[in-house]
Structures are given as structure tokens and as C-alpha cells.
């Protein structure tokens, strides 16, 4: 079994996954990892792959238990894992009834090692770099531009592998919890007076120099790990797929990764169909939404405005072309959420026992709006992908319930402490109001 890089535009030529290459040398388009599906099918039918998953149920990594479908030629002793994946698919039945959908689950990708789904891709990328360095490649460091979560994942996996990491962040535009992670893990952190798109432009130039390896999702190795979210969802639903999967979208690698995962399962006979995909964007950073409304017109980059969903505050998404392809292949759509909508949707979901990040709030708001319009029907089963831990955004949560968020002047689900004297009678009276 073998995987290679290949141009998504169809240019001739395969490239080894050990090559330091991020774009097609012929047309400049994005590359993707392409697998030998004939060899994978020859290994066994859909039932065989399900049994493989069952036989590996005790493995700690939710990514590498699917190693033949991720990086089949990677030596096992080169794998750098921190027990990523295997995250819970949380049913939220009362919230499903509120939204008027058949069933609703939240895929808790934020419960991974560094607190976001980025771990799934970083274990693959760093493992491949680890193997390349062992084989003699001159790689001095791995670098990324980040709005927070990518930097944490890169810092963690690079530290585990003993490889230097360079992180380029927009100064003052990520949460304290996100900033402290790469600092604590020893990465070289560069805070620039620009936005994510400005950081991305610089890190791409940096990676063009010899010895610096790019870790952003323009590098399609990342998507190989992220596609295992689709594998886990199907397995957790008894080897069926939902009707809809709603995914927060910034740089847009995740939607193409989910599509790749479900498409691979279908090609191997594990599932019989693909779910429809919805990319949820913050209204302040929604170039894919603008394109979708114009029959998927070519990308027009925008200057992303500040949003509580800071990890998707991206106006020039690298994986735009892959995202459009995924949405067309699944009859998908794009929806947006205002700051008030995403904050209220996040707080409303929290009332059902969740503690959602603002980006998951964007996806929940999108699902709410699609259900209200009847695009998602009362019979549909829906999975919302939670991309990060809400604990990384406790400042946003506190601001919502304190009423301090400027763009959310009337938080609908605000909850504040009831201040009382130290009196049993006063406490009893307050408790009795519960009914």
C-alpha cells in the first residue's frame, strides 16, 4: 500500500509524501494525498475493515488505528502520538427537539491532547517529518501561522518528537489559554502586528527557504489525520452516516478532510452513502459563504473582521478549492452566524451540559438556521463538529454571562450569580423559586 501527493487540478505526476512540496510545480494548485484504493480494497471488503477497527479498539490513537488509510508506508517506529482522537460523540436529544431535527450529536474533537481537532492532523505531519529527518532530510524546524489551536498542536507534537517549532501568531488576537500552550512547550513564538492572513503570507515565504517545513493545512498531510473524524463518526453511529455534518470553517481544510474520510469509507464499502456537509462561517469572515451565494464563484479574499470565533477569522482561506469540491460532491451548503447568533447558540447548547467554544457556536447557529428554514428537516440526523475545548475560551464565556461582549448587547441565555446575605432563609427562598 502506498500514498502519494497529487495535484487536485489533475496535472500529471505523483510526488512522494517525503518530498518537501506544498503546491503543484506545474500549475501552482494545491496537492492532496492520494491512496491506492485498489490495494486497500484488495485487503478486504467493508466487513473486513470494520473488523480491523474492532480489533484495534484498544489502541490509544484514533488516527493510527487506521494507519493503512492514513500513511501506509510510514515506519511504525516513526509515529509521534499523544493519544489523539477517539473523542466522544455526544447525543443532545433535548436540543434536537428544540431545533426540530431528528437527532443531534456533537463530535467532541476538542477533548484531544492539546484541546482541538488540530492534533489529528499534527500527529501525521510531525510523524512524517520525524521519518524524513531520520532518513537524512535537512529540516531545522517546523513552522506554522496560527490563530491559536494549530500552534498548540504543533508545539506539542514537535516537542514530543524533539523537533524545533516556530509559531507565527497575530499579536493580541488569540486567547491567553491558546497563547500559553506553545510558550509552555518551548516553541519559538513570534507575535506579529497583522492578522492571520498576514502571518500566513510570511510563513509561506519562510517555508520556501531550505530547512523550514510548513505545518499549515496547505500541507495536505494534515488532512490525512483530520479525515479520521469521519471514520470515528461512522463507527460511533454503528457504521452509518448522518444526514448532515456541520463544520466550522476558517482556512477550510477540515471540510475537505471530512469529505475525504467519508468518501474513502464509501469506496471501501464500509458505508453506503455520503452525508451532506455544511460549512459554518462567522459573518465577519465569510468568503466561502459569499462564493456559495454566487454559484461558487472564484474566491474573493476579504479583510476578516474581528470575531469571537477567532480561530476562523480568516479572509483568504488556503483550502478554498478543496472545500468547494467537497461541498459540490455532497450537495452541501454554507451558512453564516453573526456574533450574537454564535454566542447565543453556544450558550444555549451549554444549557444541555456542553461547554462549547465560539467556533462550535458558529456551527450550532448554522444548524439552527438551516433547521428553521427546513433545509435540515425534522427527520434528519445531524452531527455538529466541535473543533476545540470551551476551556480555551473561558474569557468569552465569562464576557457573555457578565454582559461585556460589545457585539452581543442582549445575551439571551445570560446567567449570573444571585448575591445574597449569609442567611439560610435567603438561600431557602432563592432555592424555592426553582419550583
What's the helix and strand layout?
Blueprint: E1 3-7, E2 14-16, E3 31-35, H1 37-43, H2 46-55, E4 89-91, H3 93-99, E5 103-108, H4 118-134, E6 141-145, H5 149-161, E7 165-170, H6 176-184, E8 188-192, H7 196-207, E9 212-214, H8 221-226, H9 228-236, E10 244-248, H10 253-267, E11 276-282, H11 287-293, H12 320-329, E12 333-337, H13 339-350, H14 358-372, E13 381-386, H15 394-402, H16 424-432
Parallel strand pairs: 5-13, 6-7, 6-9, 7-8, 10-11, 10-13, 11-12
Antiparallel strand pairs: 1-2, 1-3, 4-5
Supply the key terms.
alpha/beta; six-stranded mixed β-sheet; 38% helix; 16 helices; 13 strands; Rossmann fold; four-stranded parallel β-sheet; single chain; 435 residues
Characterization of this structure:
- With 435 residues, the protein is an alpha/beta fold.
- Helices cover 38% and strands 15% of the residues.
- It has helices at 37-43, 46-55, 93-99, 118-134, 149-161, 176-184, 196-207, 221-226, 228-236, 253-267, 287-293, 320-329, 339-350, 358-372, 394-402, 424-432; strands spanning 3-7, 14-16, 31-35, 89-91, 103-108, 141-145, 165-170, 188-192, 212-214, 244-248, 276-282, 333-337, 381-386.
- Strand 6, helix 5 (149-161) and strand 7 (165-170) form a beta-alpha-beta unit.
- Helix 9 crosses helix 10 (253-267).
- It starts with a strand and ends with a helix.
> What is the mean predicted local confidence, pLDDT?
96
Q: Nearest-angstrom radius of gyration?
A: 22 Å
Query: pLDDT below 50 for ≥5 consecutive residues: which ranges?
Result: none
Given the structure, what is the number of helices? 16
Question: What is the percent of helical residues?
Answer: 25-40%
State the end-to-end CA separation.
Answer: 63 Å
Kindly estimate the percentage of residues that lie in beta strands according to DSSP. Answer: 5-15%
- The neighbouring-strand order within the major sheet is 4-5-13-10-11-12
Can you tell me the CATH class of the domain at 89-115 and 223-402? Alpha Beta
Task: Determine the structural class based on helices, strands and strand pairing.
Answer: alpha/beta
Amino acid at each position: 500500500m502506498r500514498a502519494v501527493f497529487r495535484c487536485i487540478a489533475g496535472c500529471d505526476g505523483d510526488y512522494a509524501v517525503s518530498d518537501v512540496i506544498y503546491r503543484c510545480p506545474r500549475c501552482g494548485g494545491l496537492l492532496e494525498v492520494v491512496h491506492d484504493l485498489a490495494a486497500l480494497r484488495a485487503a478486504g471488503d467493508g466487513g473486513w475493515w470494520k473488523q480491523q477497527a474492532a480489533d484495534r479498539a484498544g489502541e490509544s490513537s484514533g488516527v493510527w488505528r487506521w494507519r493503512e488509510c492514513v500513511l501506509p508506508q510510514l515506519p511504525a517506529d516513526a509515529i509521534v502520538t499523544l493519544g489523539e482522537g477517539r473523542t466522544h460523540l455526544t447525543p443532545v436529544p433535548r436540543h434536537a427537539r428544540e431545533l426540530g431535527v431528528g437527532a443531534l450529536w456533537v463530535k467532541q474533537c476538542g477533548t484531544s491532547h492539546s484541546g482541538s481537532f488540530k492534533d489529528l492532523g499534527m500527529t501525521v505531519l510531525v510523524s512524517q517529518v520525524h521519518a524524513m529527518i531520520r532518513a537524512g532530510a535537512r529540516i531545522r524546524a517546523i513552522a506554522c501561522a496560527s490563530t491559536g489551536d494549530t500552534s498548540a498542536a504543533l508545539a506539542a507534537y514537535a516537542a514530543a518528537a524533539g523537533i524545533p517549532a516556530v509559531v507565527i501568531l497575530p499579536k493580541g488576537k488569540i486567547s491567553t489559554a491558546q497563547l500559553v500552550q506553545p510558550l509552555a512547550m518551548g516553541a519559538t513564538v513570534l507575535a506579529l502586528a497583522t492578522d492571520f492572513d498576514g502571518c500566513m503570507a510570511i510563513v509561506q515565504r519562510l517555508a520556501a527557504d531550505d530547512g523550514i517545513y510548513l505545518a499549515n493545512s496547505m500541507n495536505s498531510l494534515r488532512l490525512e489525520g483530520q479525515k479520521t473524524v469521519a471514520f470515528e463518526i461512522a463507527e460511533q453511529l454503528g457504521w452509518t452516516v448522518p444526514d448532515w455534518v456541520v463544520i466550522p470553517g476558517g482556512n477550510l481544510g477540515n471540510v475537505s478532510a471530512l469529505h475525504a474520510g467519508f468518501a474513502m469509507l464509501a469506496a471501501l464499502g464500509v458505508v453506503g452513502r455520503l452525508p451532506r456537509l455544511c460549512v459554518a462561517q462567522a459573518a465577519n469572515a465569510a468568503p466561502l459563504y459569499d462564493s456559495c451565494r454566487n454559484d461558487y464563484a472564484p474566491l474573493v479574499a476579504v479583510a476578516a473582521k474581528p470575531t469571537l470565533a477567532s480561530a476562523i477569522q480568516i479572509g483568504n482561506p488556503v483550502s478554498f478549492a478543496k472545500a468547494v469540491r467537497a461541498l459540490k460532491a455532497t450537495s452541501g451548503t454554507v451558512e453564516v452566524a453573526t456574533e450574537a447568533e454564535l454566542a447565543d447558540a453556544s450558550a444555549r447548547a451549554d444549557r444541555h451540559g456542553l461547554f462549547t467554544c465560539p467556533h462550535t457556536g458558529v456551527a450550532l447557529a448554522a444548524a439552527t438556521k438551516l433547521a428553521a428554514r427546513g433545509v435540515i428537516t425534522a427527520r434528519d440526523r445531524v452531527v455538529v463538529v466541535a473543533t476545540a475545548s470551551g476551556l480555551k475560551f473561558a474569557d468569552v464565556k465569562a464576557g457573555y454571562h457578565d454582559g461585556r461582549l460589545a457585539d452581543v448587547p442582549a445575551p439571551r441565555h445570560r446567567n449570573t450569580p444571585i448575591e445574597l446575605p449569609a442567611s439560610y432563609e435567603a438561600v431557602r427562598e432563592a432555592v424555592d423559586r426553582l419550583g
